[in-house]
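for the writeup, i need someone to sanity check this before i put it in the appendix. the sequnce is what the collaborator sent (i think, or maybe the updated version? ugh). structure was predicted straight from it, no edits. if anything looks off just tell me and ill rerun, i have time this weekend
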Amino acid sequence: MKRLLVVVDMQKDFIDGSLGTKEAQEIVSNVTAKIQEYKQSGDTVVFTYDTHHEDYLNTQEGRKLPVVHCVKGTPGWELCDALQEFEGKKFEKDTFGSRELALWAAEEKFDSIELIGLCTDICVISNAMMLKAFLPEAEVSVDAACCAGVTPQSHRNALEAMKVCQITVQES
């Protein structure tokens, strides 16, 4: 079985930076353990990076969420310190879901894809839905203990929405 772990936007700005939350901080050790598990099994681990530029506030997203974050080249754009040691293919994305990731995963023909990271209710759900669309026969799952949303309620809502779309949600 060909397995893929997608680590979504575990960047400093989402953990303890401009959009950080205590829930995001609380999942870092779970995310680290999950990456180690995949690496030890010889499975593929990739990372997505929310990527904005200096003109962020002039974009549609910037006008709707006027909090500058994840500007490429800034410390907030980088992976959190606990994940710096891990290597894996990077997908920089300027939108919630990565088209490049979905195309690449389809070409690689993964049987199982697990997503973890931030934010459950925006980028995790967007990438899960895209991967399910591009690989309809792959088992797509999300580990709830390795994800955090903008709020605890929106996190739960996103998990429930993914279940309806045949994405397996692993609950602790």
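The chain has a mean pLDDT of 97. The chain has six helices and six strands.
thx in advance!!
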